[in-house]
Amino acid sequence: xxxxxxxxxxxxxxxxxxxxxxxxxxxxxxxxxxxxxxxGDFLVKPGxxxxxxxxxxxxxxxxxxxxxxxxxxxxxxTRGDITGYLPxxxxxxxxxxxxxxxxxxxxxxxxxxxxxxxxxxxxxxxxLVHIMxxxxxxxxxxxxxxxxxxxxxxxSAGLAHELNNPAxxxxxxxxxxxxxxxxxxxxxKDVIGIxxxxxMVEALxxxxxxxxxxxxHQNLSLAQRMQEEDKLTEWLNNHQVANSDDIAETLxxxxxxxxxxxxxxxxxxxxxxxxxxxWLHSNLxxxxxxxxIEESSNRIASLVNxxxxxxxMDRDQGKDFTDIHPGIRNTLVLLGFKIRKGKVNVIENFxxxxxxxNVMAGELNQxxxxxxxxxLDAMEVNGKGTLTITTRRRDPDKIEITIADDGPGIPPNIQxxxxxxxxxxxxxxxxxxMGLEVVQKIVRQHHGSIQLNTSPAGTAFIVCLPxx
Length: 468
Known about the structure:
The chain is α+β, with helices and mostly antiparallel strands. Helices cover about 50% and strands about 20% of the residues. It contains 14 helices and 15 strands. The protein has helices at about 10, 20-30, 115-120, 120-180, 185-190, 200-215, 220-240, 245-255, 260-265, 275-310, 325-335, 335-340, 360-380, 435-445; strands spanning about 35, 40-45, 50-60, 60-65, 70-75, 80-85, 95-100, 105-110, 320, 345-350, 355-360, 385-395, 400-405, 450-455, 460-465. Strands 10-12-13-15-14 form a 5-stranded mixed sheet. The chain is elongated.
């Protein structure tokens, strides 16, 4: 394609360079090279060196990132936009994809001339620094939003798994209960025909129902459970009780043993044994299904309450004296699926003397989420791990929270960069590089500090917050 000539008049037509002296713009032109890109070509990719300051002369370049395998379009660079290296920027490597979406011409000043420009061309430097300030602001806002959405996506996925199990259990138990209750008329016919003395009925009731209420929970292995069921099945068969297999399974579930059956049997006329034991079995099955539904419903209510506390939906977003422990525990609840999937053992060393602190609880939950999620990611390579969370009162007016993992640690050559914007040790698509930067901002917003301790044996982030 034919190159468009770039003159000082053309550069002066750009809003960002309109006040730069002509001689400085001429220097800019004289020391720049012209690049041509075709649609589909990349100006730069993540991890590549940023080669210089680029002025878009014609065409369009799409800037985007890839997170969780999803392409996230951020903005488009068009005619007159200035991108790439800018004065005083610490960025050496690109964090985004810059792909031409149509034929592009751009003028590029090599970054090696940046020092000379700063020293000799004040107004040009000033204009470019202003562009950098705006860019950092826009990038930070966009990436922080992406980081929040990425974290929300992880929590939502985990929460969906957490809610799915009890919800499915309720549906399953409701269907089972409905089918079970349809059998009640048959059991009623059997029971109504039983002829027993009132005293025997009373004695049987006083013996049976305490067995249920004082249910002996047994932590039996599968083999032990089958052995107990076989014993009870044999006992029931010996006493000509029909449906012995199902009855035995239910009785073992409630911790009722052969000795208990002997006690019950003394009060039941032999000809009514089948009817009575099947009626007792029917009551126990109903009891068990209702218990399961109650447990699943409580689990869902607990998860919903965890979300409510985590987001502080019923609280103002200002600072308030708050116990930090519920926020940490609810973060663990919401990340529970990932914790179990990673075979991670969680140890809570929470200090009993840790006072409430004047904090924005919702903001701090972002801190706990990022640090715990990073720790879980770090332990993935081991296939298992231990996450240790310790809280203590460090001084009369400070509290300390340590989140430690036993992963492989952070390499020495990148330890000084982990809090920098857009820096990430995760593979492309797993992180934006804003997580720890956001953590540091929130901690500083609370006038606190965050410290890193790491070695090949593990990593610990120590957050210190003032009480007031």
